[in-house]
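tool_call: predict_structure(chain=1)
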Amino acid sequence: MFEGARLITRDGSAPIEDAAFVVANSRITAVGRRGEVTAPAGAAHIDLSGKDRDADQLAKWSADFIVLDANPLDNIANVRKINAVYLRGEAVDRAGLRAKWQAQWREKGQL
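tool_result:
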């Protein structure tokens, strides 16, 4: 369960403050305010407090998403302020990927 983010909707309604959503089997299965959404037994809880989450991906039932440190609706440059990346509901080891790619580039003389 991901909790604490401000969920930004695109239907004209106000953002959901202190939102929570559940990812199960690579699907987003529940969305609401923290405390109103029940997590499955044994679910991990990931705190996204202070982060914005765009509801557009939730509407598509995708568990692939990014967590930004700032709202891109306030300034489009904020899309570059990536805090975390999740694929199929699992956090991506961005530092590990960067190190792997840099090692490959060094081998090829590209870095």
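agent: Confidence is low (pLDDT under 50) at residues 57-62. Proceeding to next step.
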